[in-house]
């Protein structure tokens, strides 16, 4: 972000809330000189057909992501805990919906 | 909009590799860990899974995607030129507003695609440089002129129609960011084809001269649109690799056939003839037969000798150079604001 020799406008990730009550969802990225500029560009690039009521832009360089090649070990601990799911428990039919 | 992918190498690709990638992309001397990664990758592709940025992928898969997605992006951007040419001369305010919206969409499509390509580790400047220096290809269909208003309608109906045929299967491409960009593009592209067809329907209700203009435009664009799907399967050695990788889902010839079959009834409703004496329904195949495409002309255009190659590239380079001061000023402004904020905070 703060590299002085930068010739390209920095990259921003764009998140759009499609309507009130829904979460912002990642929809792509774009280049812009600063945050204000990125918001205007995001409006023009990603919401030309009323796809959004709110936009977040985040400098791509500030996102920390989990390592895709480690996803086995990283997410592994959850896979053997089937008792976290309701279907693990057998309830007599006569109880009905629970 | 875009097609002809996998059939056409960029100039530097052809020079540096000059060969078709083998089905197994890992060379024999690959380490055991690389082979394991390759096996994992193959298994995921075979299971119709998706590949996401930063995950391990064969280098040839990455290179192929960068080439295809950037060519696709360039095609969207260059594709703005033949239609943009008509914005100031559209026959009514309504048609003008529609055309502006369409051309703006094409620009948007280019931007979705450039950012999808950037997730593979190439930079925007690198891609633009390849386009501006003539190293990168774009769809050869944009190297033909739009001579009159009927051409704008035909570009929407046939050129975008052909592009939609090609782009719908790309929504299922194995590379996640490309597939997601294509979903967005396809949603918007449907309006492009419909507005073109509707504009032609209006002309066909007009004077004899207007009808003749539509027929003339169809005559000039039809064969070029068929060529947009790229060379026949037998002459597309890279297609098999693209299919294997789940990048390409339907072969050039199959897509072309679908396009012909879809277009014939549309032409009938419109009241125009498609300029091919060999075009007829084949009961046995349950599909239309059609005549020979002039591939020499296609390759001449791809290789830079079409009627508008120089003009299109010249317009792109000029726009880029003329905009340099805006890009620099915006960056200088942002840096100044940032410095001021830092100073205020201190």
UniProtKB/TrEMBL annotation, chain A:
Q: Which Gene3D superfamilies match?
A: Phenylacetic acid degradation B
Q: Which Pfam families match?
A: PaaB (PF06243)
InterPro entries membership = PaaB (IPR009359), PaaB_sf (IPR038693)
| Full protein name | 1,2-phenylacetyl-CoA epoxidase subunit B
């Amino acid at each position: 972000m703060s590299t002085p020799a930068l010739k390209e406008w920095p990259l921003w990730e764009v998140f759009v809330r499609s309507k009130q009550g829904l979460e912002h969802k990642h929809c792509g990225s774009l280049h812009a000189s600063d945050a204000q500029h990125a918001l205007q560009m995001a409006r023009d690039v990603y919401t030309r057909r009323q796809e959004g009521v709110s936009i977040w832009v985040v400098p791509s360089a500030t996102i920390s992501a989990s390592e895709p090649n480690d996803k086995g070990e990283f997410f592994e601990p959850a896979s053997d805990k089937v008792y976290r799911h309701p279907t693990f428990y057998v309830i007599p039919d006569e109880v009905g919906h629970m | 909009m875009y097609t002809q992918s996998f059939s056409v190498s960029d100039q530097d690709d052809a020079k540096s590799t000059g060969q078709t990638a083998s089905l197994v992309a890992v060379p024999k001397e690959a380490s055991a860990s690389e082979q394991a990664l390759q096996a994992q990758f193959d298994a995921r592709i075979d299971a119709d899974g998706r590949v996401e940025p930063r995950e391990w992928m064969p280098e040839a898969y990455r290179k192929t995607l960068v080439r295809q997605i950037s060519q696709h992006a360039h095609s969207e951007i260059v594709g703005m030129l033949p239609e943009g040419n008509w914005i100031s001369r559209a026959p009514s305010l309504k048609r003008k507003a529609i055309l502006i919206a369409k051309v703006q969409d094409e620009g948007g499509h280019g931007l979705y695609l450039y950012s999808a390509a950037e997730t593979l580790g190439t930079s925007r400047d690198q891609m633009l440089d390849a386009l501006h220096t003539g190293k990168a290809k774009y769809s050869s269909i944009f190297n033909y002129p739009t001579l009159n208003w009927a051409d704008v309608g035909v570009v929407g109906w046939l050129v975008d129609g052909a592009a939609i045929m090609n782009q719908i299967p790309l929504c299922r491409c194995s590379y996640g960011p490309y597939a997601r960009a294509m979903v967005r593009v396809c949603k918007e592209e449907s309006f492009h084809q419909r507005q073109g067809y509707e504009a032609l329907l209006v002309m066909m209700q007009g004077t004899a001269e207007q009808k003749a203009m539509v027929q003339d435009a169809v005559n000039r664009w039809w064969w070029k649109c068929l060529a947009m799907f790229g060379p026949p399967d037998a002459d597309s050695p890279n297609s098999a690799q693209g299919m294997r990788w789940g990048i390409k889902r339907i072969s050039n010839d199959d897509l072309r056939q679908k396009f012909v079959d879809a277009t014939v009834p549309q032409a009938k409703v419109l009241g125009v003839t498609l300029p091919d004496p060999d075009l007829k329904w084949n009961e046995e195949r349950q599909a239309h037969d059609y005549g020979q495409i002039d591939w020499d002309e296609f390759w001449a255009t791809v290789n830079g000798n079409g009627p508008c190659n120089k003009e299109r590239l010249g317009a792109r380079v000029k726009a880029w150079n003329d905009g340099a001061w805006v890009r620099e000023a915006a960056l200088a402004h942002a840096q100044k604001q940032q410095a001021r904020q830092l100073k205020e905070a201190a």
